[in-house]
Design brief:
By secondary structure, the protein is of the alpha+beta class. It has a single domain (about 5-355), classed as Orthogonal Bundle (Transferase(Phosphotransferase), domain 1). It has 9 helices and 15 strands. It has helices spanning about 85-105, 135-140, 150-165, 195-200, 225-230, 235-250, 260-270, 280-290, 300-315; strands at about 5, 15-20, 25-30, 45-55, 55-65, 70-80, 115-120, 120-130, 130-135, 180, 190, 315-320, 330-335, 340-345, 355. The strands form 5 sheets. Strands 1, 4, 5, 6, 7 and 8 form a 6-stranded mixed β-sheet that branches. A 3-stranded antiparallel β-sheet has the order 9-10-11. Strands 2-3 form a two-stranded antiparallel ribbon. β4 (about 45-55) and β5 (about 55-65) form a beta hairpin. α3 packs antiparallel against α6 (about 235-250), α3 (about 150-165) packs antiparallel against α9 (about 300-315) and α8 (about 280-290) packs antiparallel against α9. The radius of gyration is 21 Å and the shape is globular. It comes from Glycine max (Soybean).
């Protein structure tokens, strides 16, 4: 029996491409013939080194050993190792994941889930390994922002994935550029499929995550102490989607440089919204503005967002590379005597759009 190290996924599930005639967008469709138990025995996983860190835990490059009588394979995977939770809550999270796992089968715009395990007492969600995310792509660009045409294209991919999971009753609750992965065809796929919702109601051993449900810079008002300000709804993901799109357009994270307490005050107490670049197509500007309504009942659903992005993609809006200037407000924090902080706001320039 031979051994083989494989950097890509096994033959199942398999992928094929279709052209969405309405928006002229190439989509990858995944067909799966394997809906086995998602549990992975811990001894079949080997953590290699950490490749990322987030509010819910660390991401590791790992090796998944799969074998039968006919083959013996080692697949490179991404292992999301969650922060410790109380032992009596682990079973609840595993049961929630089992339901989520089967909902994600066949969803093209979601990173393939290999399964789940427990290593060193911590839950590990095992996912397909992608080379990079939209956040990584932005970090490699000179001004950190993505062209409008690509933002609309990625937005369509993202909205399709979120909408499909919504149709199956699942929330994402942690949309942000570093959680939107890019596949080999430069299509955006969801790299976080609802970890916050898996942990809703769980008790962390050493974290304040129980007080909020997401990453602060991208959280809707109702995600702060959700048991108090809820309910969580599909429109909650519209806020996170809007934050992700604005960051792609401007190259600046919403509430960049602000401590968590200040973000809470801005979003929950003062009802402030992230800055939307001027000069966008009016339909895109309006739908993004709607994403940031304090009352979730006034926000657009993902199907509405998808419709707008598809329509404007077909119109061929582009940014004039000679006239583009950064619009988003950039905050700089200067510490005085270790106690006083002064926020300096840089000059706001406009983004010029041309239709070609």
């Amino acid at each position: 029996m031979s051994k083989e190290v494989i950097a890509t996924q096994s033959p199942t599930p398999f992928e094929y491409e279709i052209l969405d005639s309405d928006a002229e967008v190439l989509r990858t469709v995944r067909a799966s013939s394997n809906c086995a138990n998602p549990w992975i025995e811990p001894e079949r996983l080997k953590l290699r080194h950490r490749i990322g860190r987030g509010p819910f835990g660390d991401v590791w490059l790992a090796t998944h050993h799969q074998s039968t009588e006919d083959f013996d394979e080692y697949h490179e995977v991404a292992a999301k190792m969650l922060h410790p939770i109380r032992e009596d809550h682990v079973k609840i999270v595993l049961e929630k994941f089992n339901e989520l796992y089967f909902k994600c089968q066949g969803v093209a715009s979601v990173s393939w889930l290999h399964g789940i395990s427990v290593l060193n007492g911590r839950i590990c969600i095992i996912m397909n390994l992608c080379e990079g995310s939209i956040g990584d792509k932005m970090a490699g660009l000179k001004e950190g922002r993505i062209s409008l045409n690509d933002v609309l294209r990625y937005g369509i991919n993202l909205a399709q994935g979120v909408q499909e999971l919504h149709s199956k009753g699942s929330f994402i609750l942690n949309l942000k550029p570093f959680n939107v992965l890019l596949n080999d065809n430069d299509q955006a796929i969801l790299g976080d499929v609802g970890i916050p919702s898996l942990l809703l109601g769980s008790s962390f051993l050493s974290s304040d995550m129980a007080k909020r449900l997401g990453t602060p810079n991208y959280m809707a008002p109702e995600q702060w102490e959700p048991e108090v300000r809820g309910p969580i709804s599909f429109e909650t993901d519209s806020w996170g989607f809007g934050c992700t799109i604005v960051e792609m357009l401007t190259g600046n994270q919403p509430w960049y440089g602000c401590p968590v307490r200040r973000i809470y005050q801005s979003v929950v107490e003062k009802h402030e919204k992230p800055n939307i670049p001027s000069g966008l197509p009016s339909s895109v500007e309006n739908i993004l503005s709607g994403c940031f309504e304090y009352d979730l009942r006034n926000r657009p659903l993902m199907v509405d967002i998808l419709s707008v992005f598809q329509r404007d993609t077909s119109l061929g809006w582009t940014l004039d590379p000679q006239a583009v200037k950064k619009k988003a407000t950039k905050q700089k924090v200067i510490k005085l005597s270790g106690l006083v902080q002064v926020l300096l706001l840089s000059t706001i320039s406009s983004i010029v759009i041309v239709h070609g």
